[in-house]
Amino acid sequence: MKKSLYLSLLGVAMLTTAFAQDLSKGRISGNFEIDAQYYNPDSAIGAPAVPEKALMNGWGNINYVNGKFSAGVRYESYLNVMQGYDPRNKGTGLPYRFASYNNEDLEITVGSFYEQFGTGLTLRAYEDRGLLYDNALDGVRARFKVRDGLYLKGLWGKQRTFFTTSPGIVRGFDGEINLNEFFANAFDSCKTTVILGGSFVSKYQADQDPSLVLPENVGVSAGRFNIIRGKINFSGEYAYKINDPSTTNGFIYKPGEAIFTSLVYSQKGLGIALSAKRIDNMSYRSDRSATLTAAMINYLPALTRQHTYPLAAFYPYATQPNGEVGWQADIGYKFKKGTKFGGKYGTDIAVNYSAAYGLDTTNLNDENGRRFGYSAAYFSTGEEFFQDINVEISKKISKKLKGTLLYSNIRYNKNVIEGKSGYPIIASHIAVVDIIYRITDDVALRTDLEHLYATEDHGSWAVALVELTMAPHWFVAGIDQYNYGNEHVDERIHYFSTQVGYTRGTNRIALGYGKQRAGIFCVGGVCRFVPASNGFTLVITSSF
C-alpha cells in the first residue's frame, strides 16, 4: 500500500513538472468529507455490536489546472468502513489519480478517469459517494474532435475494485456524429437535429476454470440515435453482448442484449417523458466471478422515480441484469397564476408511472449442449417485479407558506429484488404532506408527515419530521419513524433520530444521534443494504 502511494505521488509530480513549468500560474481546488459513526448494540432493532465501536469513511480531492494541463488525486480512508458499505472498502490510499492534457481538439488522460458511452449500455465508469460505488478505469483515454460534428473516444485500462483493480482488461471505442454540424451546408436550414453514435467495448480475462471453457475476450457493441425537432426529443440505443458466462448468470453461454428508448416533449409549463427498456442477460463485468456492485463495466438504468421522502423510498427498485422489461411515464404540468387551479402563485403537478417485469422465459435442457440456459419471448412479459404510481402537487400558498402533497402506490417483489423467498407481492400506499413556513427571511420551519399502509412485510409505518433552518449558519432536525403496524408487538419500534448542523461558507459540520432501521438504499437501480444501527453520527464537509 505504501509503495503504491509513493508511486502515485511521484507520477503526478513528474507529469505536473513535464506539462506545467510555472506552477504559480495554475489553480488548485478540492473538497473533503468525513463521515463517522459511534455504534451502540441494540437487540430490539437488530443492531449488532461493532468491535471497533466507531467507524469512519473519509476522502479528499485535490485538483490542479494550469492552462491546457490538469492533474488531481483523491485520498480515501476507511478505518474501518461504516456499516452498510462493502467491507472490502478497508484501509487507506490514493486509488484515484490522473493527469490530462487538452490541446485544442485532442485530449489525453493517463491514470484514473470516468467515462460513459451513449446511455451506458456498453460502458459507464462513474462514482456515487452515497453508495460508495466507484468503478473508475485506470489506464489511458483519448478524446478527439475530428472536425465539427464528428467526435471519437478511445480507452484502455483496468477497473477499480476497492483499493486494487479487477483482473480483466477493458478496451473501448466510441464515435458520434452530429449530421447537422458535419454537413453544415446541406443541413443549414433543417429544423431537425440528428445525432448518430456507436460504441464497441471488449474485456479480456484469462480462463483459469478447470471445468469450463470460458471466452477470454468478450465484446459488446451498440448503436444509438438522437433526433431533436422543436419541442420533441426522441432517442434510443441497442446493445448486443456475445456469450459471457459469469457468476451472475450461472455460467450460461447465452448472448445478451439490451434496448433503451426515450421520447420527451417539453414546452413552457408542460413536460412529458416516456421511456422503455428490455434487458436480457446483460451483466457485464471485468471480473466474471465478481458479485454485488463490483467490477461492473456497463450501466443498466432502473427507469423508476428516485424518491427522496423516507417512506416513499422504503421499497426502491434494483435493476435485474439477468432479465427485465420496464417502462416509465412522467408528466409535469404547471397551472398558471390567476387560474382556477393555479391560484395566486401557480400550482405544479407531477404524475409518474413506472413498472418492471421479468422476461417470459422457457428453460432449456441443454446442460450437455450449448448451455444457453433459457430462451425468452421478445414481446411478452413474465413475473411482476415492481410498480410505482405516484402523484405530487406542489403549491406556494402565501409569501410565507408553501407545501407539497405526494401519493404513491408501490408494488414490490421482495423475493426477486432482495433475493428473499416466501414473500407475496408487497403492496403499499404512501401519503406525504410537506409544509414549509418561513417565519422570517432567515428562519424557516419545515414539517414533513408521512404514512405508509401495508399488510405484508413489516406492516404500516408513520413518519414525522421537523426541521428548523436559521440561515445562513444553523439547522436542527428531528425525525421519528414508527413501525406501528408490525404484526409482532415487540417490533413496533420508534426509530427516532435528531441532527444539528452548522455551515460557514463552504464548510459544514453536522452531529446526530438516533436509531436507523434496516433497509435497502438505491440510486439509479444500484443498491446497497443498510443494517440497523444505534449511535452518534458526525459529518464534516469542506471545499476550496
What does this structure look like?
With 544 residues, the protein is mainly β. It folds into three domains: 1-95, no CATH class; 104-301, Porin (Beta Barrel); 302-544, Porin, CATH 2.40.160. It is built from three helices and 31 strands. It has helices at 2-19, 179-182, 414-417; strands at residues 27-39, 54-66, 69-78, 91-103, 106-113, 115-117, 123-125, 127-128, 133-134, 137-147, 150-161, 164-165, 169-178, 192-204, 217-229, 232-241, 256-267, 270-280, 323-335, 347-363, 374-396, 401-412, 426-438, 443-453, 461-470, 474-482, 494-504, 507-516, 519-523, 526-530, 533-543. The chain has a 24-stranded antiparallel β-barrel. Strands 6-7 form a two-stranded antiparallel ribbon. It is globular. The model is unreliable at 1-7 and 14-21 (pLDDT under 50).
Low-confidence stretches are 1-7, 14-21
Number of strand segments: 31
What's the tally of helices?
3
Number of domains: 3
Tell me what the CATH architecture of the largest domain is.
Answer: Beta Barrel
Can you give the mean pLDDT? 93
What global shape is seen?
Answer: globular
Reported for the largest beta sheet, the result is: 24 strands, antiparallel, barrel
Percent helix, as a range, is under 10%
The CATH topology label of the largest domain is Porin
Over all CA atoms, what is the radius of gyration?
25 Å
Distance between the termini: 28 Å
CATH class placement of the largest domain: Mainly Beta
